[in-house]
């Protein structure tokens, strides 16, 4: 192989590794956020407070 091909392959490999590292960092951040929300929910349940949800509201049963 010539030098340009090897350099191009190395830079492509480095770019792929950098992208993978960013994905892992984002995933780790999301996991930490999720853990924090879960801990907050557990603490709220223990103290008798209502959960504050950021997602979809819970389904309500119609008492007709």
Could you describe the 3D structure shown?
- By secondary structure, the protein is an all-alpha fold.
- It contains 1 helix and no strands.
- The longest helix is centred in the middle third of the chain and has 45 residues, at 3-47.
- The radius of gyration is 23 Å and the shape is rod-shaped.
- The mean pLDDT is 82.
- Residues 20-36 have a biased composition (Basic and acidic residues).
- Residues 1-64 are annotated as: Disordered.
- It comes from Rhizobium brockwellii.
In whole angstroms, the N-to-C terminal distance is 77 Å
Q: Average pLDDT, to the nearest integer?
A: 82
Specify the helix fraction band. over 70%
Query: Rounded to an integer, what's the Rg over CA atoms?
Result: 23 Å
Coarse morphology: rod-shaped
What are the low-pLDDT stretches, counting only 5+ consecutive residues below 50?
none
| Main beta-sheet strand count, sense and barrel state | none
Classify the beta-strand content into a percent band. Answer: under 5%
Say how many strands there are.
0
Secondary-structure-derived class: mainly alpha
Order of helices and strands: H
Q: How many DSSP helices?
A: 1
Protein name: DUF4169 family protein
Organism: Rhizobium brockwellii
